[in-house]
Design a protein that fits this description.
alpha/beta, about 25% strand, Quinone Oxidoreductase, Chain A, domain 1
Length: about 325
């Protein structure tokens, strides 16, 4: 099979190799998926660069966690009815050597979710990390109907979907983004209000939009940088779900302002969140896709041979949407 791989971490154009690898065979409980589209997530780029651990000691890596395609064969213990099924796959390369940046990948059957007929492979490749993370960040807070939800970084991959999930849950959503252009992007997610977080009066404006009641739940993209604002705007017994703190990886936490409000903070990592949460996310994603209730964004598409260019584009930042590798 044709594939992209690297043997040591480093610069994309220097370490990513294109060529032939042995086509895998599904083991017990696994499916073999013929990949048609693979997504480049920021975590994929960080792993390739060496900024995040690969999850194993050594050996080559076929990158990317997310993708979409068709089940071609199944291993022992998996129903033959799955052969020919269109699927989207997630966490394909988590603690494993082989991800979706190849013509074929094997992975546990539960990680290959049914892809509705009305959804293209390119969109299917975009679902895993961002959509499941957003789902967990929203629904880990319980019933949000009629509540005020703040989504920071709402023009980003996760935040854009978090707004949509929160709206489906019946919440009133205030979104933030880092520029006027980003605010226009965030507004397309369906948020009720959008604010530039560089505004000097951000706390005042957020509280004003809630008639001083405050925020019930926050979906946070930069926990360490924004925790002071969070403490100021959140309600008593409010909740925060955060999936990143890249600009402040060792944040200073305003302990007492958070404690006095009995605030609960939930850290979200899609790879090892509870299986029940993954199953619920997969079910809700399938329903939302069938009903065309999710809005998606593809920033660009590249061929398998051009994967290094896609990695560089993601590293450069500023992409509104998913970088997709189309695989012949």
């Amino acid at each position: 099979m044709k594939a992209i791989w690297y043997e040591t971490p480093g610069v994309a154009r220097e370490v990513l190799q294109f060529g032939d690898r042995v086509k895998p065979e599904p083991g017990p409980g696994e499916v073999l998926v013929r990949i048609r589209a693979s997504a480049v997530n920021p975590s994929d780029v960080k792993k390739r660069a060496g900024a995040q651990p690969a999850g194993f000691v050594d050996g080559y890596v076929i990158p990317h966690s997310d993708g979409a395609g068709v089940i071609e064969s199944v291993g022992e213990g998996v129903s033959g009815d799955r052969v020919g099924q269109r699927v989207w796959v997630y966490q394909a390369q988590f603690a494993r050597h082989c991800g979706t940046c190849a013509q074929y990948v094997t992975l546990p059957s539960m990680l290959a979710a049914s892809l509705p007929e009305n959804t293209g492979y390119d969109i299917g490749a975009c679902l895993g990390i961002p959509v499941m993370t957003a789902h967990r960040c929203v629904f880990s807070a319980g019933d949000l109907s009629g509540k005020n939800v703040l989504v920071t970084g709402a023009s980003g991959r996760v935040g854009y979907y978090a707004v949509q999930w929160a709206k489906m849950a019946g919440a009133r959503v205030i979104a933030t983004a880092g520029s006027e252009e980003r605010c226009r992007v965030a507004a397309k997610s369906g948020a009720d209000e959008v604010l530039n977080y560089r505004n000097d009066h951000l706390v005042r404006d957020i509280l004003g939009m809630t008639d001083q009641a405050g925020i019930d739940h926050i979906v946070e993209v930069e926990f360490g940088m924004n925790v002071g604002t969070s403490a100021a705007v959140i309600k008593n017994r409010g909740t925060v779900s955060t999936y990143s703190s890249s600009l402040a990886p060792e944040p200073a936490i305003p302990f007492y302002p958070l404690m006095f409000k009995n605030v609960s903070v939930n850290m979200v990592l899609v790879y090892n969140m509870p299986d029940a949460a993954k199953e619920q996310a997969v079910e809700d994603i399938h329903t939302a896709l069938e009903q065309a209730r999710l809005c998606h964004r593809i920033a660009g598409t590249w061929s398998l041979e051009e994967t290094a260019k896609a990695h560089r584009a993601v590293e450069g930042g500023g992409m509104d949407g998913c970088a997709v590798i189309e695989i012949e």
